[in-house]
Amino acid sequence: MYKTDDKRLYIYLSVIIALAIPALLINLGLQTFINDESIRALVALEMGFSDNFIVPTVNGSYYYSKPPMYNWIIYISFMLFGRFDELATRVPTVVCLALFCYTIYKVNRPYFKDIKYPILISLFFLTCGRIIFWDSFRGLIDIGFSWVVFLMFIAVYHYGTRKKYWHMYIISYVLASIAYLLKGLPAFVFVGCTMMAFHYMDKSLKKIISIPHIAGGLCMVAILGGYYMMYGVYNESTSVVPGLLDQSTQRTPLRHGIWSTIKHIFIYPFDNIFHFLPWSVLGVMFLRRDIWNIIKRNRYIHYVSICFLANIFVYWISPGTYPRYILMLIPLIFTVLVYLYSIEEEGWRLLLLRRLYQVIIVAVPFVVAGLIGIDEVKQIDGYQWKIGVLFLALVGLAVIYFKDQGYRLFFLVMLVLLLRIGFNWFMMPIRQEKDYGTIAKNQAAVIGKKYKNVKLELYKNAKLDHTSSFYIARERGVINYRNLAPDEDDIYLIVDTSRTEIPIPYEVVDTFRKREDWTLMYVVKRKQ
How far apart are CA 199 and CA 204, in angstroms? Predict the structure, then answer.
């Protein structure tokens, strides 16, 4: 490894940043919310409507599945943009992703002599399939939550290896408290597994029972206890813990049974290889007999490996987990892979990777050119010049790839970003057009506007999905409360006939479809 002052690095990095901005922002607010996004947006919206930022609610009822911090972030974004919509909900994800990538670079920089490698770890995270083609354009908690948990991983190592245990425990538990306020109980699992992993590697298990550890724990108790003291002012219910437990155990063996768990254990590694392509193929670097000895030679790489294994275990035995649940672990495994790549001598592993990436860099331009023959693509404004720009850029990239082989991986990063720009131009509009959620969104918005100045509430146990509820509430400017026993003549009710019948004195005045299961919902009013 060596330190480079090659100006090409900074030129290529500037190009990557220039590509990343449109890749992450073009059509960011175009697609209709998926259900998990609409939950976050709806809770933030209701916080603003009720002027209560301590107790989350959904349709006016207490919401126990997640603490409120990420909803605060979304609401701040709402205020900055001056509107409640998809773009304002998703921009915090992009901001958190940018901060996460920068953090990955900064924390890895001291452990690599060549600056290229910490930069590559950060760029691999940005451009792995799951991030660049899904999570980076969704208004979900997970990227922000993962960033905080990753900071906790690094704080444990940074201060623990320097024997600064007061710093290690207090900072780690403060970060874990923030992570809890973002997503709930998984924060406890991560901090617990990470502490055990570090002390095992450091041969300092006795430090688990120590004054600094107690002090760190008390900091967490003070932060979370302070929040729940404020929470108790508004809601004294004992349903908070059961609600968080229910959310955290939905995808564990407790809910799915032994056979689903066994199947998941076998397929989980392959699922993750797929989701984190193209960089997961660097896993070929693990295919050597002395791999663990090589890892143990570098104390930082050893810790990163142990930390990854200790934390991935919970998800490896939990059927139904989504790849976004382990985003904080991906920089760890990429760090190990890049380290192994950086010390690899010429051999079959490097040859295999080069051949594979050569096929990709040559084939992709022609795949993109083939879009011109797809009828759906032809419906998009400017499709010809867009395909032309992408094709020429990709061909140019392929030429440079073979000429400047020292930066091959940087050119592949550029390729992925160009593909994301193409995805934004073509796939997002096509998906938006085909998504039945868009129809449901439009119908809900019409209902919200039409009944903006009247009292409209959910009747009894009507199940209105979060997406439809958000768009109705946004248009009306009020929470969609539930009414169990309406007694007013001028009230309008939303009735779900799959769960309850239309009240006898009422007549149907409108209908709309909800997104979740395409159920027909009825707006009714008392007969005159």
Answer: 5
